[in-house]
Design a protein that fits this description.
Largest sheet: none
Radius of gyration: 25 Å
Order of helices and strands: HHHHHHHHHHHHHHHHHHHHH
C-alpha cells in the first residue's frame, strides 16, 4: 500500500493529483468567480438602498483587497493547522459572511459582512489552492494549473445567471442565504486537501536562506561589518530576505510585472464585468436573464483562453518570451475594452464579451509562467507573495474609481476608457522595458566579447614577446 501511495505522489500525484486539481478548480469558482458574478446583486442593491455605483462598488473593492491581502495570514494558519483545516475554516467563515449579509440594514454593513468577512474566508484559501498543486502535480503542472484556475471562469459562467435567478425567486436577501449554503462546498474541497509528505522541505529551505546571513562561515571582515549594524537593521535585513523583498531590486523586470499586476488584475479586471452588466441594463438590451448571460459568455471564453495558453507557450517562437506574450495580452485586452462603447446591440455585446474573455483569460494564465521565467522556480513562491499586495491595493481603488467616474459623468463609456487605458499602459510598459533590457544585455555581451578578444590578443603578444626573448 505504501509503495502505491509513493508511486502516485511522485508521478503527477496519480489519481489523487487530478482529484486535487478538480478540488482547486471548485475553490477558484468561489474565491475568484463569485466576485465576477455579483453584477445582478449590485444592481439590486443600488435600487434597494438608493445608493450610487461608487458606494456599491466599495463592497467589491473591500472584498478583493481583503482576499488578496490575507495571504500571509493564510500561510501562517497553514503552518499551524495544515492545509485541510485552513481551507475548511475559510469555507465556514466565508459562508457565514454571506449569511450575515442577508440581514444587512444598510450598504455600510455589507462592507463588513460581504467585504471583510467573506474576503477573509476566501483569502484563507487563495494561496493554499495555488500552492498545493505543485506539491502533488509536477510533470504536467502547466496543464494542471490552467485547469485549476479555469475555476474562476466557470464561476462567472455559472454564478451570474444563478444569482439573477435566485434574486428573482427569493429577493436579494434570500439569494445571499442560498449562496451561503452553496459556498459551503468549499469545506468539501478542504477535506480533499491533505498534507504533503515533504511539507517541511520548504520551511527548511526558507530557514536556511535566513541563516545564510549569519557569520559562522564568513571571513572576519564580513562579520565585523554585519556586527556593526544595529539589531533593528539586522532583523529588517533578514526579514526582507525571508519574504523575498529583495526580488524587487534584483529583478527590475519583475518590479514592472508587479506594477502591471497592480494596473490590470487589481485596477481594471474586477470592474469590467460589473460595469458591462450595468451598462447593458441601462440600455435595456433584453431581459435580466439575457443580460446576465453576457457574463456567462465572458466566463466560458475565458476558460477557452486559459486552456489555449499552454499551447501558446509550447508553440511560441524563440524570440517571443512569456513577457512578450504577457504584454501583448494586456494590450489586446485593453484595446477591446476601449472599443466596448461601440457595442450597442445584444449581438455586439456578446462578441465584445467573448473577445474580452479570450484575451483576459490568456493574460491571467500567463502570470505564473512569466514570474517563473523572470525569477526562477525557486523564488516563485516569494515573488507571488510580493505581487499579491499590488493587486490588493489596485482592487481596493479600481472599482471605486470606475464607480466615481460613472457617478460624475453618468456614462459607463468613460469607465471602459479608464480600464482600457490601464491595460494598454501596463502592456506597453512591459514591452518597452523588455526591449530596453534585451538591448542592454546584447550590448553587455558584445562588450564582453570585445574584451575577451582584446585579452586574447594581449596574451598572444606577451607569449610572442617571451618566445622572441
Amino acid at each position: 500500500m505504501e509503495r502505491r501511495e509513493n508511486r502516485a505522489e511522485t508521478k503527477d500525484g496519480g489519481v489523487y493529483g487530478w482529484i486535487l486539481v478538480l478540488s482547486c478548480h471548485v475553490c477558484c469558482m468561489f474565491v475568484f468567480g463569485i466576485y465576477q458574478a455579483v453584477g445582478p446583486l449590485f444592481v439590486r442593491l443600488q435600487e434597494y438602498f438608493d445608493v450610487g455605483s461608487a458606494r456599491t462598488s466599495w463592497i467589491l473593492s473591500v472584498a478583493t483587497f481583503t482576499e488578496l491581502a490575507f495571504g500571509p495570514v493564510a500561510n501562517f494558519a497553514m503552518k499551524r493547522i495544515g492545509y485541510r483545516r485552513t481551507v475548511i475554516f475559510g469555507g465556514i467563515l466565508s459562508s457565514f459572511g454571506l449569511f450575515l449579509s442577508s440581514f444587512a440594514p444598510n450598504i455600510e454593513f455589507l462592507y463588513f459582512s460581504f467585504g471583510i468577512v467573506v474576503g477573509c474566508g476566501h483569502g484563507l484559501i487563495v494561496s493554499l489552492q495555488l500552492g498545493i498543486l505543485p506539491l502533488f502535480v509536477k510533470k504536467r503542472y502547466i496543464i494542471a494549473n490552467a485547469l485549476a484556475v479555469c475555476g474562476s471562469s466557470s464561476g462567472a459562467f455559472v454564478f451570474t445567471p444563478l444569482w439573477q435567478l435566485l434574486i428573482d425567486w427569493f429577493g436579494w436577501r434570500g439569494s445571499c442565504i442560498v449562496f451561503a449554503a452553496i459556498n459551503a462546498n468549499l469545506c468539501v474541497c478542504g477535506v480533499i486537501f491533505k498534507e504533503p509528505t515533504n511539507q517541511s522541505t520548504q520551511l527548511e529551505i526558507t530557514m536556511s536562506s535566513v541563516s545564510a546571513g549569519r557569520c559562522d562561515d564568513r571571513p572576519s571582515r564580513d562579520c565585523n561589518r554585519e556586527e556593526s549594524l544595529t539589531d533593528k537593521e539586522t532583523t529588517l535585513k533578514r526579514r526582507s530576505e525571508l519574504f523575498g523583498c529583495t526580488l524587487l531590486t534584483r529583478y527590475p523586470t519583475f518590479t514592472l510585472v508587479a506594477f502591471a499586476y497592480f494596473l490590470t488584475v487589481g485596477v481594471a479586471f474586477p470592474g469590467i464585468p460589473t460595469h458591462t452588466i450595468a451598462r447593458a441594463q441601462i440600455q435595456s438590451l433584453g431581459s435580466q436573464n439575457a443580460i446576465a448571460l453576457l457574463m456567462s459568455i465572458f466566463g466560458l471564453v475565458v476558460v477557452l483562453g486559459r486552456l489555449v495558453t499552454p499551447v501558446i507557450l509550447h508553440l511560441r517562437f524563440r524570440l517571443l518570451t512569456s513577457v512578450h506574450l504577457f504584454g501583448w495580452s494586456f494590450i489586446l485586452t485593453g484595446v477591446t475594452c476601449l472599443l466596448s462603447p461601440l457595442a450597442n446591440t445584444y449581438t455586439t455585446y456578446c462578441v465584445n464579451a467573448a473577445i474580452l474573455g479570450l484575451f483576459s483569460g490568456i493574460a491571467c494564465t500567463l502570470i505564473s509562467q512569466t514570474v517563473k521565467d523572470i525569477v526562477g522556480p525557486t523564488n516563485m513562491t516569494a515573488a507571488i507573495a510580493i505581487e499579491t499586495p499590488f493587486a490588493a491595493v489596485g482592487g481596493l481603488i479600481g472599482p471605486v474609481i470606475g464607480g466615481w467616474i460613472y457617478d460624475t459623468t453618468k456614462d459607463y463609456n468613460n469607465t471602459f476608457y479608464f480600464y482600457g487605458s490601464c491595460l494598454v499602459i501596463a502592456g506597453m510598459i512591459l514591452l518597452v522595458f523588455k526591449a530596453f533590457t534585451d538591448r542592454c544585455q546584447e550590448t553587455a555581451q558584445s562588450d564582453i566579447g570585445v574584451a575577451n578578444k582584446n585579452q586574447e590578443h594581449f596574451l598572444k603578444m606577451i607569449s610572442t614577446a617571451a618566445d622572441t626573448g
